């Protein structure tokens, strides 16, 4: 049984369809990347998985359970962590409080988890008392990932973690993602940055206008001429 | 597939039974999540509330005697029967009513299909105007008076406030202050205040002066305060309304204080050989009012569709982007504010002139709120909405009160009024006759784009998102 | 994607003093204890595409906000030399006045009027230059109608220019991402600017769209004679467009120069780019060192 | 037969105009139920014996507002069965509506509009069964000066038209009598009626009162606010006299201020005690039963006003018309619960004398007529 | 001169007013924090507290009052009843007038109208059911001066208000800054959607926030009624003032509400030596306008997040 499975998923915003019959699966331990142009429906897919959006039809199965109509706070409790598009740090909470929010549904000692996040992102450790809103973009992204890790997710949804970040920071983020997987968390990664995403991922899906148009092993996709043309910008800029 | 009941370990699950495969039964304690049952629950509670609303007056001596009287059998039974009956209707409609729904949708879409037709619209407008001219002459004195003092004045006030709230998105809770300013201007220039005017004016020329005074007051209040954010503007204007009232009460030597004004002269026209005096009869005032309402409707309609209306729409949606696009946000806000103020001021002048007397107690905050309610009930940003909303909400209570069949207690009016407002916001927030832009904004807001009003405007560009 | 040759062609090589467009001098902006710009000085020449790069939080957007009147810096001077010879100080001027002087902008996250159509969005920009007052609007005076016709024509021309003619009647909220970016540019151009500030116009666009965007920005600059000040993280795009680059870090200018110079600048590599590499690949394919910003 | 006789019986409607909604509702209800009660009792033959006509009751809500009042008046004028109006309750509403009533020759008998100017406007259809402010205020001043030997008084009005006029008249006379007068306005609160004042204001006001060294407080306004003020001044350590007007002549005053605080307070009214006559008892028990709450401010006046109208109608029998009622009221002499009702030509009550009351042991006790007490 | 005249008395009454305002203001601020909504019906939550206190005391003690320690129990019972009444009404209010709107993502103006509707409905139906006269809550203490500070007499009532308010304010401050509920409230205030991704049940947090605000508002309603009696219109002015106080301190900010309440209470009272009572509200709104013009986010700035 797949950890996550989307079956004929359709999502609409009002009358406008954003996803039309998406089928996708993620196996335990994988990094799967979801590629696509702007507005293809990548964010919508992640939002539907975590319950922020509800499907018009089709099913979202997490460990075999239908979670399409479950509210976000309950999806989290099932073991799905979501790092939303645009980071969405609580701007007036300190770094530490942001991390504590990540563990909102859990009881008990958080010290260890916090220390673990600080070991992944030493910069955050230095700024544990600083307000989230005053962090730089890169730091906020790290905090967003660390915050999601605090709930011990079995599946981590990452929405464009490299968006708007300086090249140097992007690099660091991707390294961290690899480490998180190596520690046993399954990852569904949405990215614009196709090259790097595919280099990191095991498998990939390509979304276009709300439909999966291509899928396969990451290495295959990386070599596919159509992908290279459309998403890796081979012929793009003159 | 694993046992779905495992999920119930998670507190406060919002799984609806519809989402589960049909073979999975809902445990009993989750039954309330079933939409039908939840609605029934709401309807039963509604029945109790209705019983209270329509029950006897309590006496404040025996605790809860009113409640006791209301919840007795026949009365409570009727109320419950009504609301449960409503539930049955709703449920039937939901379950089997696809056909009924499409039919009713077709009916409610009819005006929308006819209205864009310019020829039809023109005809309808002419017919309406003819009706507005001819019909009132056949009413008795009471309904004529209602038509002026309740309906007409409030229609004018509502279309004026619509410019402020509906077009520019500014929540003004002190709107009635300008009404007061208009009324006092009239009293001043006709010599009905303790202080006397520098010149004795023909009581008709008071109108432009009062309008200009109210407009000036709008500008003076607007320039400093319109920089404030939506909610703050609301509270500051609310305070302004209170202040005007307090000042009117306290400056006895200027305004006559709590006792009110002296006798104000009726409007009179003495030009070019015309000698006409508006008297006690409401009808001539009605026609004067009608002229102004029609003029205002024409003017505001033109404004809405001009560059000024577009600038307001832009400000309403995103003040920062509007400024970056070269729109002088403050200027346009002040403009809307001043236009609203002058409309309100004129209404005040007219009331003062017809009744010939008023007192500070006539300008309460509740009145400002009432006018806001009229605008929103009718449909914010929509001129027909403001007109119809004001007319219906002002006329209906009078009608229900007078009509032998209903004759409900006037003192219960505001209970019903409150209930209507809540139900309206739940079931039809766009108002009776929504404007096209407003409907779009609401639709967008429902899908999480924008906020459909300018109440957050002015917040910093990095403002984090509010609710989803 | 070839090497980033400076695009100085077509510009008369007069003395740099003569065709200065913007002079920013010792700008300092603080929020409470946080200094987001400190002693920033830079100049832009008329007709130039200048790019501002730097790590997240370096102060790029803050600089834009100072240039457009959204923020008032505590110290420093910003002078804008208009084509008509007037020199204008921008500090402390309200954003709409700044726009009137000839500086228009787009936002890092696009801010369109979502409930209005594409056409109306651009028209709002164009009409901010009209003179019609409330009386004219109510009475439909002849000059009002003339102005309106002229505005409509200009909107059509701008939509044509950015390639959105077929979307004129679409609500801005239902435009695809790339089109939203173009619409924002069209709206800004509608106000007739001499200088256009673009804040990360390529953020979140795919390589194909990026190509179109490069093309559009170049046309704005060449065909319309509008100077462009560009914030962007996508080095490929920056290198192919910018004639000069200013690098900010922690609110300070750490380097200024041609793309080639910047790419070699050790301070920039240290703070932002990472180890030097050919700029041919897309964003991010750089660097091998260091900590986050 | 009885049925045809019944059908032939004429029905006259006596209307009530006053606030039935809004912040002044309670005062309005105090009067409305009295009017209704008087009509019920008359129909039942309890008060005027068998009448040759039936009486009907009609309530019209003007919310106590001058802007609403003309429309309300129109509704009564338009109803041809309305033969006389008890009301309008408020002075402002009266001022606004009276031109219309006058034009319709419809008699209005107000139980509570005390603004002196109302009687000067030449409306021959205007009557009131209460003394105007010019009668009561000076009497209070006289009592304070002559009987209580007050040297310095702190006068407070609640910013209502009623109290402003009353306190002004009081202050004027008090100064003539050599009393030092400090005058402040403290708007009535939402706690009590349609004021916009704030209950908290009394704390600071009490401080002012104490530091003014006045040895009496005179309050123009209604019982509920007066109770709050009384509590506040006593809490601030004020030990002088507390005085107020007929708006405060209400058992609620004692209940709300507490007997300990209220004891000793002087209240005045241009009306005498209801007493223990059978008529007074029938009124208060009947009222209690009909309204569900006990008799309150202006209830008895409204009852008297209605009965005065009925007395006129009884005299006119089946020939009553609106102008005839107006004429009849100009001549009527009717002994009511509060006074003998007899009108001066301008509509003011004739020979009204002001009575002084005092709270003693938690009860309001009549002391007597002011003119006699000060002798 | 006039400022110093009754300085201590006025300061004391100002503080008493201020505490009451602060208690009410907290309800506005909490709800504003999570919903960015002015809860116009909070005045009726306040009123409900007054009535609940009255009814519970009538039902349990009738018109008997107690003395000594008994009177402490009496007041505590009243406060508890008032708080419970306020909490229940606030909860229902959220359920009926706000939640359905939230479900359809109605704009803020719709909430405002719904709130105004609820306010009208509640206070008018209270008037209908409980009569239009003020009902007396018998106080277990007299209104005579109890002791004095710098020559200014202090009544027992002021002491009751101060003790009750300070303890409740401290409690709420603690709840918001360091409990799980508080953290949830702040998270929803800053970014509700993301909070839900952290496992926060938004609906429940909003309900709890309303209830928390209702508890305080209701308790304030009882305390107010203890002096002034309870009546259906009792909420309007105190609530308006408290809202002013909340904005003054920085709406959405818990400590701001407390500070705003005290500042407003004092600012309204101190000048009373110099001006007529009738100008009091003009002073209050004038101060508000001036503060907003020069410091548009109130004294302490906005947002619940800062409350920590
Ligand atoms: N709240 C919304 N209301 C209406 N339409 C929406 C909304 N959010 C997204 N859409 C539309 O749904 C489609 C998919 O959007 P989505 O955000 O999922 O794309 P994406 O692939 O994540 O794009 P991006 O790379 O820009 O993040 C787009 O056409 C978008 O315009
Ligand atoms: N309104 C504000 N209040 C407080 N701090 C602010 C404000 N605006 C910007 N800052 C701070 O100023 C610094 C510079 O921010 P700015 O937005 O200019 O960075 P940037 O270079 O545009 O970054 P990015 O590439 O992430 O967009 C940051 O630390 C930011 O938090
Ligand atoms: Mg996305
Ligand atoms: Mg930026």
Please write out the topology.
The complex is a heteropentamer of chains A (238), B (468), C (293), D (375) and E (308).
Chain B: H1 35-54, H2 65-70, H3 73-96, H4 98-114, H5 118-134, H6 141-167, H7 176-189, H8 206-225, H9 230-250, H10 252-255, E1 268-271, E2 274-277, H11 282-304, H12 307-317, H13 319-324, H14 329-355, H15 365-378, H16 383-402, H17 413-427, H18 436-446
Antiparallel strand pairs in B: 1-2
Helix pairs in contact in B: 1-3, 3-4, 6-11, 6-14, 6-15, 6-16, 7-8, 7-9, 7-14, 8-14, 12-14, 15-16
Chain C: E1 20-31, E2 34-45, E3 49-53, H1 60-67, E4 75-81, E5 87-89, H2 95-101, E6 103-105, H3 118-127, H4 134-139, H5 142-162, H6 177-190, E7 195-199, H7 207-223, E8 227-231, H8 235-241, E9 244-249, E10 252-257, H9 259-264, H10 266-273
Chain D: H1 2-8, E1 10-18, H2 25-43, E2 53-61, H3 69-78, E3 82-86, H4 91-103, E4 107-110, E5 126-128, H5 133-147, E6 152-157, H6 161-176, E7 180-185, H7 201-211, E8 216-220, H8 223-235, E9 241-244, H9 251-257, H10 259-262, E10 266-269, H11 278-291, H12 299-316, H13 322-331, E11 334-335, E12 340-341, E13 355-360, E14 363-369, H14 370-373
Helix pairs in contact in D: 2-11, 2-12, 3-4, 5-6, 7-8, 8-9, 12-13
The complex binds adenosine-5'-triphosphate (ATP) (2 copies) and magnesium ion (2 copies).
Task: Describe, in plain words, how this protein is organized in 3D.
The complex is a heteropentamer of chains A (238), B (468), C (293), D (375) and E (308). Helices cover 36% and strands 26% of the residues of chain A. Chain A is built from 10 helices and 10 strands. In chain A, helix 3 runs parallel beside helix 6. The longest helix of chain A is centred in the last third of the chain and has 16 residues. Chain B folds into 2 domains: 92 residues, no CATH class; 321 residues, no CATH class. Helices cover 63% and strands 2% of the residues of chain B. In chain B, a hairpin with a 2-residue loop joins strand 1 and strand 2. In chain B, helix 6 runs parallel beside helix 11. With 293 residues, chain C is an alpha/beta fold. Chain C has 2 domains: 194 residues, Rossmann fold (3-Layer(aba) Sandwich), CATH 3.40.50.300; 59 residues, no CATH class. In chain C, 35% of the residues lie in helices and 22% in strands. Chain C contains 10 helices and 10 strands. In chain C, strand 7, helix 7 and strand 8 form a beta-alpha-beta unit. In chain E, strand 1 and strand 2 form a beta hairpin. With 308 residues, chain E is mostly helical. Chain E is 72% helix and 3% strand. Classes of the chains: A alpha/beta (238), B mainly alpha (468), C alpha/beta (293), D alpha/beta (375), E mainly alpha (308). Chains B and E meet through helix 2, helix 9, helix 15, helix 17 and helix 18 of B and helix 3, helix 4, helix 5, helix 8 and helix 9 of E. Bound molecules: adenosine-5'-triphosphate (2 copies) and magnesium ion (MG) (2 copies). One magnesium ion (MG) binds next to helix 1 of chain A.
